[in-house]
Amino acid sequence: MEKVIIVGSGCAGLTAAIYAARANLSPLVLEGRQPGGQLSTTTLVENFPGFPDGIDGPQLIMNMHAQAEKFGARFSYAEVEAFEPNGDTVRIKADDEWLETRALIVASGASARYLGLENEEKLIGHGLTSCATCDGAFYRNVPVCVVGGGDSAAEEALFLTRFASKVYLIHRRDKLRASKIMADRVLAHEKIEPIWNTVITQYIPDEKGEMSAVKLRNVNTHEERLLDVACVFVAIGHDPNTKAFAGKLETDPDGYLLAKHLVESKHPGVFIAGDVADRVYKQAITAAGSGCAAAIEAERYLSSLELK
Ligand SMILES: Cc1cc2nc3c(=O)[nH]c(=O)nc-3n(C[C@H](O)[C@H](O)[C@H](O)COP(=O)(O)OP(=O)(O)OC[C@H]3O[C@@H](n4cnc5c(N)ncnc54)[C@H](O)[C@@H]3O)c2cc1C
What does pTM read for this prediction? Predict the structure, then answer.
């Protein structure tokens, strides 16, 4: 019987691990298929407090990992496949083995949707990203493009006008799905140029492996052309990693976990943290903050069980 199991080793899971380990709970962290989470796929992180010169995403994650391990957190690469609340405990199946725990922190994150084109994985962090708040400031006075037509795409395009010389908004339809007010703001902005009925069919990196252009195809005329851009911001949504918890933990229609109160799920002893429950901010620091809160609540819950 474990005291605390943490699902995920992104910023939320690792921060929860630091707090739970320092509370002497010897948490077991199940890292899943992407140890270190989304930050392990990026390069420079300039907005995590405490690093005035920025820090490499993978280095930040390794630091958090070492900090949690130093206080007694244990790690396994197991992937959670199933979850069952079981009275005062929780059972989870990970890599074919059932584990039982008094408290569970679900910090399994969310995966940004990309376009599924060649070289995609190699280009993430090198001119291909899903986060304008994170990476917009790296692209000053150069042309960039945003892919998508919803509110997030509109928001990202508007945000990027603060830095980029030009923001192309590439959408496969002939009008935006974004709310009218956002769509009006986007279309009125002098730096934003919508490119309608169009999809990207190829990323074109330069000799250093950084994005330099994209190939576009008009979905009606099938006409193709090249567009020079230093970065592609893909804003076509995220998929929260909640498959293992489907039907057992409450989610919104898009699969994001819903809390009963802050980081508490409706199941006693099950806490949620990070992007898996956050459709709004999706930042390393907000994920870390909720990981801290989840670990503190888990510790209080375990103390209340002991009092009982
Ligand atoms: C390219 C890129 C650049 C970014 N840059 C920045 C930036 O500069 N600044 C910033 O603040 N934010 C940035 N972000 C956003 C930031 O990375 C996320 O907000 C943050 O990583 C969320 O942390 P998390 O712990 O909630 O989830 P994640 O980082 O998504 O981690 C999820 C973890 O859960 C594990 N997992 C998933 N399913 C299972 C399962 N079934 N069983 C076991 N484990 C599982 C995964 O393996 C992973 O370890 C960036 C994101 C991307 C993609």
Answer: 0.92
